[in-house]
């Protein structure tokens, strides 16, 4: 015990015990004793720090004084019944309180993170307003668009490469189009079909009329022009008229807030989100379409996907079941007999965001009708809760052809991705809350998106994009 390292260890042990007692002394409002403990803890720490700085052990006088003074305080704590049993019970109660606080902070963090992910940045709002004003002010833009409409034969030419994006985000959509065009071997054969809502329709038209993308053809439609998209035909629209559904998604009070906020996100009822299940009706003249989400970046030529053999299937997609939690049981409620009877819980999940759709097979197999069936069965949200992927897994069950994983790499909006996958990936998907156009975007991956944004564009500079 007289060896220098043993003395230092003894002082450290006293400090640790004193810190634990200090917590209890403060909670017991014994502030004078707490002050004395704090002072002695600082004295002991200072002694050890000085010994380390001068690189020599504590002298006998230093160590004896420090150990004796702390021992007297620890003995006093024992007389105050700050013994081990009392400390254990109090610390256990403290741990429980801290766990409850941690859970509360975690829930708030999740809620605020979701709110941040759903925000429309001021710069994006500014861009939409300025583009809308530009569209109605400039007859040249409208004239240019009319001239391009004269070449409408391209929009239905099944020999070309047809892509579709459904979005209300002008800049994100522009990145999808630009990155596809920049990496296409034959951009003049690429046709983009964009569908947006009425609020962003003029702005979207203006942006794609005033900017060129290496000869890529771009057509903009608004969802309100689809007369067949009504409550008598579309289950989601019919459900929106239901008071319980409105309460669940828009007030959050339906189940005493037991359901996490991400499950109540109204975007999951957006028709732009569900329009992917109506692609053959949106494009009745087309035979094959490549669907892209608006949060992707394309960094390879995608034309080979149009000649990929889907072996009679409707949907070509990259599977995500490399990990067990991406199998069907992750997304669906297997306590429900309808799910349990019809679907293998270990079946492979796959990703929406880059999908090749054979529209001929789609129409032949009435895939939209299958989607309607499952959407109507889920009116009470007992089959699944979140988004469009679960109904997609049900709708395209047995109708999906697995593509090479390098065609679609996910995770850029919430996790770290293997650098080799980043390099090989044809489509990089910023799925998750950390979108690259938001302040909460992952800095490491923002350059992959930024390289397809012209920050020198006058409108982007006026709206403080950087």
From TrEMBL:
It is a single-pass type II membrane protein. Its EC number is 2.4.1.-. This is Hexosyltransferase. It comes from the Eukaryota. One of its GO terms (biological process) is guard cell morphogenesis. GO terms for molecular function: polygalacturonate 4-alpha-galacturonosyltransferase activity. SUPFAM superfamilies: Nucleotide-diphospho-sugar transferases. Keywords: Cell wall biogenesis/degradation, Glycosyltransferase, Golgi apparatus, Transferase. Belongs to the glycosyltransferase 8 family. Gene3D superfamilies: Spore Coat Polysaccharide Biosynthesis Protein SpsA, Chain A. Pathway: Glycan metabolism; pectin biosynthesis. It is found in: Golgi apparatus membrane. GO terms for cellular component: Golgi cis cisterna; Golgi membrane. It is an enzyme of class 2 (transferase). The keyword GTP-binding does not apply.
């Amino acid at each position: 015990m007289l060896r220098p390292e043993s003395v230092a260890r003894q002082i450290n042990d006293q400090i640790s015990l004193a810190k634990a007692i200090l917590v209890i002394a403060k909670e017991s409002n014994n502030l004078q004793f707490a002050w004395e403990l704090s002072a002695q803890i600082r004295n002991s720490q200072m002694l050890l720090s000085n010994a380390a700085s001068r690189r020599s052990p504590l002298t006998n006088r230093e160590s004896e004084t420090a150990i004796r003074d702390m021992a007297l305080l620890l003995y006093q704590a024992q007389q105050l019944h700050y013994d081990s049993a009392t400390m254990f019970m109090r610390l256990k109660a403290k741990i429980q309180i801290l766990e409850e606080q941690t859970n509360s902070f975690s829930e708030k963090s999740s809620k605020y993170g979701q709110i941040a992910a759903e925000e429309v940045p001021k710069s994006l709002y500014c861009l939409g307003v300025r583009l809308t004003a530009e569209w109605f002010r400039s007859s040249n833009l409208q004239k240019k668009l009319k001239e391009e409409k004269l070449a409408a034969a391209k929009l239905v030419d099944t020999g070309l490469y047809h892509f579709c994006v459904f979005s209300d985000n002008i800049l994100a959509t522009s990145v999808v189009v630009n990155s596809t065009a920049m990496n296409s071997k034959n951009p003049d054969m690429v046709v983009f079909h964009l569908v947006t809502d009425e609020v962003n329709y003029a702005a979207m038209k203006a942006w794609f009329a005033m900017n060129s993308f290496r000869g890529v053809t771009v057509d903009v439609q608004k969802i309100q022009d689809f007369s067949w998209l009504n409550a008598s035909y579309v289950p989601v629209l019919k459900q929106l008229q239901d008071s319980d559904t409105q309460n669940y998604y828009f007030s959050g009070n339906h189940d005493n807030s037991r359901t996490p906020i991400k499950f109540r996100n109204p975007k999951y009822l957006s028709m732009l989100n569900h329009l992917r299940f109506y692609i053959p009706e949106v494009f009745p003249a087309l035979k094959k379409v490549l669907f892209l989400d608006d949060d992707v970046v394309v960094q390879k030529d995608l034309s080979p996907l149009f000649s990929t053999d889907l072996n009679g299937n409707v949907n070509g997609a990259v599977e995500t079941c490399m990990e067990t939690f991406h199998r069907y049981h992750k997304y669906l409620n297997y306590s429900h007999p309808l799910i349990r009877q019809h679907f293998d819980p270990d079946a492979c999940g796959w990703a929406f965001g880059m999908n090749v759709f054979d529209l001929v097979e789609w129409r032949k197999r009435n895939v939209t009708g299958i989607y309607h069936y499952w959407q109507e069965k889920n009116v009470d949200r007992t089959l699944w809760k979140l988004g469009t992927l679960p109904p997609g897994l049900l709708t395209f069950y047995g109708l999906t052809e697995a593509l090479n994983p390098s065609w679609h790499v996910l995770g850029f909006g919430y996790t770290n991705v293997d650098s080799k996958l980043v390099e090989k990936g044809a489509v990089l998907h910023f799925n998750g809350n950390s979108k690259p156009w938001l302040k909460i975007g992952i800095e490491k991956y923002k350059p992959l998106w930024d390289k397809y944004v012209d920050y020198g564009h006058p409108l982007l500079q006026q709206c403080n994009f950087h």
